[in-house]
Amino acid sequence: MINRVGANTQMISTQQKRTQNVQKQEKLGRVEEIKEQIKNGEYKIDIDKTAEALAKSLL
């Protein structure tokens, strides 16, 4: 019984690592996309969204 629990924990851990790797790759892809937009002068800042996030962080 203990071996099964250990195996399940290891499987969950492996799945979490895969999920984290996918999320990391998605973030890196988005960062590259933003870099290109900035480089090309195409990046637009959403002032309302930025102001809202700033206000929330101050509360």
What does this structure look like?
The chain has 59 residues and is an all-alpha fold. It has one domain (2-58). Helix content is 85%, strand content 0%. It has helices spanning 2-39, 47-58.
What key phrases describe this protein's structure?
single chain, 59 residues, mainly alpha, 2 helices, flat, Conserved domain protein, FlgM_C, Anti-sigma-28_factor_FlgM_sf
Shape: flat
- Coarse structural class: mainly alpha
| SSE string | HH
Taken together, the total number of domains comes to 1
CA(first)-CA(last) distance: 49 Å
Q: How many helices does DSSP assign?
A: 2
- Please state the average pLDDT score: 87
Low-confidence stretches: none
Largest sheet: none
* Relative helix content: over 70%
Query: What radius of gyration results from the CA coordinates?
Result: 20 Å
Organism: Nautilia profundicola (strain ATCC BAA-1463 / DSM 18972 / AmH)
Protein name: Conserved domain protein
Pfam family, one: FlgM
Brief rundown of the structure:
By secondary structure, the protein is an all-alpha fold.
